[in-house]
Amino acid sequence: MSSRILVDLAKLMKVRDDEGLMKRERVISSAQGAEITVAGGKKVLNFCANNYLGLASHPEVLEAAAETLRTRGFGLSSVRFICGTQDIHRELERRTAEFLGTDDAILYSSCFDANGGVFQPFLDEECAIIADQLNHASIIDGVRLCKAQRHVYSHCHTGTGLRNFDGRELPGLEDILMLDSVRNARYRLVATDGVFSMNGDIAPLDAIVDMCDRHDALLMVDDSHGTGYIGRTGRGSLERHGVLGRADLVTTTFGKACGGASGGVTAGRKVLIEWLRQTSRPYIFSNTMAPPVVGGTLKVLDIIERSTELRDRVHENAAYFRNGIKKAGFSIIDGETAIVPILFGMYPNDAVLVQQFADDLLEEGIYAIGFFYPVVARGQSRIRVQLSAAHTREHLDMAIAAFEKVGKKHGITG
After folding, report:
1. Is the dihedral of CA 206, 167, 142, 114 positive or negative?
2. For the segment 351-406, what is each residue's pLDDT rounded down to a tens digit?
3. Residue of 136, 225, 391, 395 with catalytic role
């Protein structure tokens, strides 16, 4: 093997390390929950999981997964069209499509795979994709896999005129839809997150749906951070904006609010989903979801559909924490989701500071992670706090107090 790449990578990683940009993984030694155990046996409160409904270790979900393990096995050892489809996979697709207000659905091993396989089957060089500036990396990578012309609009800006967001001036969605090259494309597809994972804000899907109708464009929404708890009954950001069933394609994951295990799905109009079964490469060439995950996820849907209690609780927790952390003197991005970004980009050496702050929080018994370049743009470092229905009011008060104490140590709060 050539040693050059080893030397080059070592240099690149040293540069990143010197700039404070190396990501380091913490190890936990317990099940996921509001309280977890980190390596060394210390118990801490977890405020950075996507476990919005607190279902990752719910007893009914665990029992359903265990029963499915006993009756359907550990794995299918194959892709879907060979011998990797069980009746429970079909059932989960049916239930998910019904839940999301669509005709049909197709399962993937993750939403990253769903997004990786959703563009190329429909779009070629004669087509156009128009994407939000802050779309998830999986959408960006999926777009790169197809040959369609690519356009980016300023974050959540559906109108016209240039808008500066995070230091980048971009046009609005309608500006791009009116371009001759886009209007003359065979198909136009608008792609957006429903809930944006780093900001916690929700795309204006009511306006986007209407605009797609006016311009004869398809709409694809990744609602991974919305499915399960956003909207009156937890059906996501489309329900929140009163347009459930009007997107052509909806991708989402079962790895966040819906149990937190793994698995993804694309739901949408029947002919589109059937074409994905025939041509979507991550579906055709990857093993199917493991049966225990399918069984557990079916139980999650039962829990979500029988009551809005968990959904209501996580929103109450998020509002309480958001109010408390603002009173403590921190700058946050306001919103209505369970994601509360606490901003550090205005401080010198923000990437280093946010990591030191997170380490100090851990010493105070609060598990939270600092995000910095390249996960977010330079100068946009933050600690993304994520609330759960499993958090108690005592947990929230302890977290706010810890943030305030560490904030004083670093001269952020008074």
Report:
1. negative
2. 899 999 999 999 999 999 999 888 888 888 999 999 999 999 999 999 999 999 99
3. 225
pLDDT band at 12 (very low <50, low <70, confident <90, very high): very high
**Which band of pLDDT confidence, cut at 50, 70 and 90, is reported for residue 1?**
low
- Res 106: pLDDT: 98
Alpha-carbon gap, residue 329 to 414, rounded angstroms: 8
User: Does residue 408 have an active-site annotation?
Assistant: no
The CATH label, of 3.40.640.10, 3.20.10.10, 3.60.20.10, 3.40.50.11030, for the domain at 61-306 is 3.40.640.10
pTM above 0.85, yes or no: yes
Q: Would you call 299 a catalytic residue per the annotation?
A: no
162 with 145: CB under 8 angstroms?
A: no
* DSSP state letters, 288-336: PPPHHHHHHHHHHHHHHHH-SHHHHHHHHHHHHHHHHHHHTT--B---S
Task: Give the domain ranges of the chain.
Answer: 19-48+308-409, 61-306
More confident residue, 168 or 327: 327
Residue 256 designated active-site: yes
The one catalytic residue in 256, 299, 315, 395 is: 256
Give me the long-range contacts of 308-316 (CB less than 8 A, separation at least 24). 308/232, 308/233, 308/234, 310/53, 310/54, 310/55, 310/229, 310/389, 311/53, 311/228, 311/229, 311/233, 311/234, 311/389, 313/389, 314/52, 314/53, 314/54, 314/229, 314/338, 314/387, 314/388, 314/389, 315/229
Q: Does domain 19-48+308-409 have CATH number 3.40.1480.10?
A: no
Task: Starting at the earlier edge strand, list the strands of the sheet with 43-46.
Answer: 35-37, 43-46, 366-367
Tokens coding 405: 């104490």
pLDDT of residue 2: 75
Contact 358, 342 (CB under 8 A): no
For residue 24, the model assigns a pLDDT of 82
Q: Is 65 helix (H, G, I), strand (E, B) or coil?
A: helix
- Report the C-alpha gap between 255 and 268 in whole angstroms: 20
Mean pLDDT of 262-268: 97
User: What is the distance between the alpha carbons of residues 227 and 300, in angstroms, rounded to a whole number?
Assistant: 12
Q: Which of 109, 110, 138, 197 is catalytic?
A: 197
Query: pLDDT tens for residues 306-332?
Result: 999 999 999 999 999 999 999 999 999
Tokens of 218: 């398809």
- Per-residue pLDDT tens for 68-80? 999 999 999 999 9
